[in-house]
Every structure is written in C-alpha cells, then in structure tokens.
Amino acid sequence: MEVAFSPLDNSLEALRGPHSHLPTYAEELAILQRRALSRACLLGAPLLLAFSAIDRLLAPTEWVGLLAARATAAFALLFLSGHLRRPGASAFAWTVLALGGTIGVIEVAVLATGNWHSPYLYAMAIPLALLGLLIPFTPRQIGFLHAQTIATALLPLMALGVDLGVLAVMGPFLLCSSAISIVVAWEQDGLRRREFLARTEAARRAGLMNLGTLAGGLAHELANPLTQISMEADLLASRYCLDERAQKTVTSLQSGIGRLARILEAMRHGARLADDELRPIDLANELEITLTLLSPQLRGVEVRRDFSRGIRVNGQPTLLGQVFMNLLLNAIQATAELTKSQVMIRLVSEHGCAILEIEDNGRGVPPALQQQIFEPLYSTKGSEGSGFGLWISKEIARSHGGKLTVSNAPSGGARFRLTLPIAA
In b/e form, how buried is each residue of 121-136, taking b as 16+ CB within 10 angstroms? Predict the structure, then answer.
C-alpha cells in the first residue's frame, strides 16, 4: 500500500488503500518512515565515507582498517535503502539496526583517535540530527534512538576509564540534544496528526457528497413510479367493491406505500449538500426525518419522544442531521445487547437555547472517558468504530454556536446533550 502526499484537492485518491478504505495514522506514518529512512540511508552512506579523509589525518596508522569499516557500513546503508522500498518493512526496527551500525563505526573511530579526547565524539550528533530532520518519528521512538546512541557512545569509553572533565561536557551535550529532538518530534507529530485528520475528513466528506448525490437521484427516480402505484391503489380502493379481505390488503398496501414515500422524502432531504449558508431549521422535523431513515435499525427499540414543537435554530440541515444520526446510532448500538432497548429523545427550549437530549438505557460512559470519547481517533467500539463520529458531532455543534456534552442518566445509561442557540 502506497500513499502519496499531494495537495488537499488531489489527496482523496492517494488516501485510498488496497481495500478502498482510508489508512490509519499508524499505517500512513509507517509508509512515510520507510521512504524517509531510505533517503536518509542514501545520504548517510557517502557522508560516512567522506569522513575517511579525516581518518587519514587523525589516525594514519589505523586508516585502512577504518576505511574498511566505513565502506562496509556504507554498503549496508545502500542495501537497506533499496530494501526499504518494499512494502511491509519495519522502518523503526531497521532504523535501530542502521543507527547502531553507524554509531558503532563512529565509536571505532573514536577509540582509534584519542578516546575521550577524540573530535569524533561530537560527530555522534550528526546521525541523530539526520534522524530528527529527515524521518518522521514519534517522540517515544526518538527518545529510544537517542538513548541507544548515548549508551553506544559513552558506555565503551566509560569502561576504558572515565575522564570526568570530558564526561561533564559530553553528557549534558548529548542529553540536551536529545531533549530538544524529543520536543521537536512531539510538535511535528502533532502537526502530522492534525494534517491526517484534515485530509481524512476531506475524503469522508467527498464520499458523503457522492453518496448524497446518488441518494437524491435514486429517490427522485423512485418517486415517479411510487406515485403511480399509490394512485392505482387509491383508485382500486375507491372505485371497486372489494370484500373485507381484499380491502385489508389494499389498506396494508397503501400504508406501505406511504411509509416508502416518507423514506424517499427523507433521502431527498438528507441528500442536500451542506454549504456556508445558514437557514432556519425546525429541529423536531429534522429529528423525525432522521428517525425515519433509521427505522430499520430502530426495530425492537422503544423510542420515547418528548418534543416541544416550533423550536427553530439557524444552521445547516445536513450537518445537524449528521449529528442527530451519530447520536441516535450510538444510542442504538449501546442497547443492542439488551432484552429491552429504550431510547428517550427530549427537545425543549430554555433560556434562549434549544436543548436536545438523547438518552439510552445502556451501560453509560465511565466518568474518566466522558471527555476522551470526543477526541478524534478514539473509539469505545474497537475495530467497529472510526473514532470520528462524536468528534465531528462536537465540532458541528461548536460551529453552530452550541456545544455537545455527555453524562450518565439516573437510570445508568448515557445521556448526550446538544445545546444550540434558538434563531431570533
């Protein structure tokens, strides 16, 4: 699986994996690390050989042996660069080996040119600088690699006899460079994660737009024959003398046609694309449309409604409908294993705000997780959850001037509370 990093408007196809699903951040980061490590090996091999010129000046008697060690390490780096172009290679594991070999060669040069007083001792910072600048490692990975370097650099020299003066200089130098690298890696990792979320959300929205267009077109095409069937059923019921059994059949047919018409209307309604224009939205009507769309999932679930009619907010219907859909699906899934599933929906107005509460009779949300569940990529559903639903819902609420919170109801289930300002 290869992922190309292109501008946002060209990145949707690049984000698709071999099974047409978006890769996780860890999968995408592994691909980046392999590519960056391959380039770092190509750069490190000639740099490693270039230092043989300094070996000739500092250790002429050891020059041939050092050249052989450097050539072997450079050849290994070039081989590794080619190997990393294959999918599936573990970039971090190979980095540990490559860095260990490179630092080992430098350590040999240190021992050959004066031990503690060797100028090569400060050259240990060069591979670390290359790692921090070229390869997108996480802070934990950078910390491990720096610890490996410090141990490889200092432990052999300490075994030969500690020069406290040099140790007092080299120790803080290496530790400070490690601390700086870890902080930089932390910031860069945060930026990469935000970029990943932005591109993933763009791809998800593009998929929703295509799905909405398809749903709207399908609803339009089905509406015409459904209207004809409805007219024929009405004609059959009004013009012909039917026995009781046939009349019940026609009545049942009309009921099914009416339900299908409501579903198609909801599909057309949900297919509207969100734009930057805010419009008055009747929240009770939007909730009824969402419940109609979710009617197959709501079979066996007792839904209690407590709506105050006429509550309107200014917003984007498609986005708010997505919030309602996410919250109701969470409630349905939370009660899926219960023998008696209940979902309570309350809609009231208080102090100039519309308040929507969706409560289930599931196991609730532990207090320690009530903030964490709104974070991107966090899901309590394991592999079945994307980790985006509640985060996106909270962002939509925030963009509408409201907020989304969660608490546990007295019954023990989860209670999600959406607060939105009422339209003037």
Answer: bebbbbbbebbbeebb
Same domain, 215 and 320: no
pTM (global) more than 0.85: no
Structure tokens at 87: 């999918």
In a domain, 405, yes or no: yes
Q: Map residue 1 onto helix, strand or coil.
A: coil
The two structure tokens encoding residue 187: 């910031």
How far is it, in rounded angstroms, from Cα 229 to Cα 254? 9
Indicate if 71 and 181 belong to the same structural domain.
yes
DSSP state, 352?
Answer: T
Distances (CA, A) of 48 to 73, 194, 390: 8, 36, 50
Which one of 204, 219, 245 terminates a domain? 204
Which strands form 341-350's sheet, in the order they lie side by side?
301-307, 341-350, 353-360, 414-421, 403-408
Count structural domains, the chain. Answer: 3
- For residue 420, the model assigns a pLDDT of 92
Q: Where in the sequence is the domain holding 229, given as residue range(s)?
A: 206-270
pLDDT of residue 163: 62
Average pLDDT over every residue of 154-161: 72
Q: Taking 90 as the threshold, does the pLDDT of residue 136 lie above it?
A: no
Two tokens, residue 385: 């959850």
Q: pLDDT band for position 376 (50/70/90)?
A: low
CA distances from 115 to 61, 108, 166, 245, 343 (A): 16, 9, 10, 103, 73
In tens, the pLDDT along 225-277 reads 888 888 888 887 777 777 778 888 888 777 778 767 766 766 665 555 444 56
Contact indicator for 357, 327 with CB cutoff of 8 Å:
no
The residue out of 158, 176, 204 marking a domain boundary is: 204
Same-domain status, 164 and 21: yes
